[in-house]
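Follow-up to my post from last week.
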Amino acid sequence: MNPEFRRNLWLELSVHRVVAMPAMLLLVLALVYAASEDRAGNVALAAAVIAGALLGIWGSRNAVECVAEEVRARTWDGQRMSAIGPWAMTWGKLLGATAFAWYGALMALVVVLVVAPPDWSRSPLRVTALLAASGVLLQAVACLGGLAVARKGYARRGASGGWALILILFVFGPGMLGFFSETARPVDWWGGRYAFDDFLLGSVSVFAAWAVFGVYRSMAVELQVRTLPWAFAAFILFLTAYFAGFWVHGGAAALGARNAILIWGLLMAASLTYLQLFGESTGVVVFRRVQVRLQRGEWRRALEEMPCWPVGVVLAGLFAGLGALLLDVPQRADSPLHDLAGAPLALFLLLARDAAIFLVFAFARQPRRVEAATLFYLVMLYGIVPGLLVASDLRGLAQLVLPPVLATPGKAAAIAAVHAAIACALAAWRWRASRTFERNTEA
Amino acid sequence: MPQHAIAVEGLSFEYPGVRALDEVGFTVGRGSVTALVGPNGAGKTTLLRCLAGLDRPLLGAIQVAGVDVLDEPRLVHRRIGFLSDVFGLYDALTVRQCLAHAAAANGVAPEKLEQTVARTAARLAIDQKLEARAGELSRGQRQRVAIGQALAHEPEVLLLDEPASGLDPEARHSLAVLFRRLQSEGVTLLVSSHILAELDAYSTHMLVMRAGRVIENRSLHQAAEERRRLRIELAAADPRLRAALQAMPGLALIESDERCAVVELRGGSAEQARLLAALVAAGLPVSRFGEEREDLHSSYMRTVAEAR
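User reply:
Got it. Predicted complex:
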């Protein structure tokens, strides 16, 4: 048996817990049965809610803690040095740490399948499949968040990846609610029309597979398995294709496949770059290693040592460049979208500026709270300072702080270029300053 | 089979603004017990973490147990055991479960797990505690379980960072006994510690680090062979003692008065016999003539003083 899975089973499945879970389920469902009129339907619904809560809340909480807890208990180095491979560690942790939640949820899902009446509003099989797939998705994303937190060193200070859970619930919550609503409409995607239930189940399953793969890749990095950043690029392209598909149909928002791919490509590359920037190990030590590998002509090793987010910046630049050349915008001068071709360039330059701001803090001689400091300045630049200037009737000045990407994209691109140049110059200065050394100061 | 258990060349490691290891190079022979010593901040822990494949250095090459650590960190993990200075245990698991997990996680076959756990527990004298939870153990017992976890898969090389810190004298003594036994079984040990008296009890070699550099790497026994510290005492004070010693070749006078002297002799037993004969021939009433073994502390202090 997978040693990590077994270790988790020792911790999660005590005799008391194994007995208590079915007893608790039985009592709750008996209460619902006794207290309602549509007994079968309500028992099935209650069982589905219990399964969802166990998988989504309890399971995700355990998944987010599965690495952070080890970091806090100082056992993670031992795990990193073990012979357990990244895949075995991935499923050992994902299924092991959540074993008790799955134990209860599986019993609840069996109740759904057995008890749901034939005229139930949703197919019991689809409901159970969706709940199971959602559980895997949420837990894998939670585990990814926990790994990022552990990598950044926050786990020692008691933090966990709860924010990742909130994010994923925010993104997928509306869709999940839609599943249970009677008015869920068919989905148009890449010219085809799909039943909402089928599309949602398919989407959640595919995203769950990506999330598990993400945990595997993250675990590989932790376990010193050398990897190239192709998976990150592949995920950006997948998301681009997935979201662009919603724009390629005959509706009012149709922009054509090329426009959809260019716009979503830029948006996805930029979004994931921000996520990775804040979730990966980035700093002088990492970039110095990359620099040395490049100087020695060890290109493959340089790519293996490099964080993923620069790949996102490159892809964003590619989509922005192609967007500037190929974006099919209205030619009428009075159209608000007339000058939209400059917008991708402006967005890319703002992304480059923000990444450089992050590096300014990451390249400090004693970097502390890099993410918080970066977030503070981004909030200032995107919200508070331009807001204050607009409120003071200084709109021109506000546009110099927050370039108007959609209103005047060409001008915005020029302003963003100046921003990016200043931020890059500051980062370069910080990099040079970091190259002077002290000796004998290791803790 | 490679000659050295550990071979390091040009190893550099940087923290932001700090070069923790600066072109470190050394070798550690198979079956030796090397004391890794140096002041706080010398780079000992960073070096051990690099050797264990836990941290990636900026530059350099590391071979441990014949495996390139930078190319094959996963493979080297199967051949070494590492005890961090800030180790942790799974407090909710029993000692038996802790050892079984460590063994299984390090590739011990399932059918051999029970036997491995029993053997490791006996080796560490924790076989009476197998059913106790790790969280209920004393500091010394926890340390033993942690060492047991590092040893369970029978590694060729054992890296230990401050293994005796926080242990009482009795526990330290049994740790020294264990390390000597491991050495006799052919395991190579590299042990970092601030407690030099403890290292003295089992070390065969000394690796001294200072400011991220190795300033000395030598066999403690070889040093005794090449350079002996002798203590000479006379039955009665004799003013000729100092002059007689100063006139002898290959001898360094460390301290002396009219009745007693400590000298450093370059050479082996033959040179030692010649010196005694010369003193007796000179008519000095030698009442005591013997080797004064330089302990690790003195050796370390001398090395550090020479490096300054």
